[in-house]
Amino acid sequence: MGTQTEKDTEKTGGCPEEGEAPLFQIVWRLSDAQVAELLGLYRNEWWTHERQEADVRRMLEHTDIVVGLCEGGRAGAPGRLVAFARVVTDYVYKATLYDVIVAPDYRGRGLGPLLMNAVLSHPAVAKVAHAELYCLLELVPFYRTLGFTDELGGLRLMRLRKS
Ligand SMILES: CC(C)(COP(=O)(O)OP(=O)(O)OC[C@H]1O[C@@H](n2cnc3c(N)ncnc32)[C@H](O)[C@@H]1OP(=O)(O)O)[C@@H](O)C(=O)NCCC(=O)NCCS
User: Fold this and answer.
1) Least confidently predicted of 14-23, 84-93, 147-156
2) Is residue 134 part of a domain?
C-alpha cells in the first residue's frame, strides 16, 4: 500500500481476443486506489463481501505476496485493478493461495490463468514444495488445468471458528 514505484509493477501479456486491451501490468503491491478497487472486487464474492477496509488493509500488510493485474496504464502507473490473488507462505514447504478473483466484466478471457501463472512463477512460490488452495468443487477443473490436484488421499480441510 502507499506509493507504488516501477519496481512494484511489471508488464504482462494481454487478453488473447483481438480488439481487447493488449497489455496488463502485474502489481506486487497495491496503491491506495487499488485497495479501494480490491474492496470493489471483494464486494462481489460470497466469501469476501463483508470484509471491512481496516481489516483488509491489515490483512494486506501481513500477507507475504500480493498479486494484482491492472489494465494497461503507463509504466509505473497502472490502470484499474481487474484481478487479484494473495499468498501466505513459509518460503520452504508451503504457499497457500487465497482470494483468487477476476473482475466480473473480465472473466472468460483467460485472465484467471494469467493471474495464476504470475502467482506460481513468483520466485518465492516457485521454490516451495507445495502450492495449495481451497475452492468449490465446480472450480476443480479450472485449477487442474494449472497443474493442481485434488487427489490427496483422505485429507480434509479442518476449521476452528473463532468469530
Ligand atoms: C475462477 C476465476 C478466477 C477464473 O478466471 P477467468 O478469467 O474467468 O478464467 P478463464 O476465462 O480463463 O476461465 C477458465 C476456465 O474456468 C472456468 N470457470 C471459471 N469460473 C468458473 C466457475 N465459477 N465455475 C465453473 N467453471 C468456471 C471457465 O469456464 C473456463 O473453462 P474453459 O477453459 O474450459 O472454458 C474467475 O471466474 C473468478 O474470479 N470467479 C469468481 C471468484 C472465484 O470463485 N474465485 C475462485 C476462488 S477459489
Assistant:
1) 14-23
2) yes
Residue 117 domain boundaries: 6-144
The x, y and z cell numbers of residue 41, run together, are 472486487
Which pLDDT score is estimated for 21?
47
**Model confidence at 3, in pLDDT bands (50, 70, 90)?**
low
Q: Which three cell numbers stand for residue 116?
A: 495464476
**Nearest Cα to 68, choosing from 108, 16, 94, 106?**
106
Question: Atom 46 in ligand 1: which residue has the minimum CA distance?
Answer: 100
Decide if 162 is inside a domain: no
Looking at ligand 1, which residue's alpha carbon is closest to its atom 48?
A: 135
CATH of residue 47's domain is 3.40.630.30
Residue that is written with C-alpha cell 487442474 in the block? 144
Query: Is the sign of the CA dihedral 114, 119, 120, 122 positive or negative?
Result: positive
Q: How far apart are CA 102 and CA 115, in angstroms?
A: 8
pTM of the entire predicted model: 0.90
Q: How far is the CA of 110 from the centre of ligand 1 (A)?
A: 9
Output the residue whose Cα is nearest ligand 1's atom 43: 101
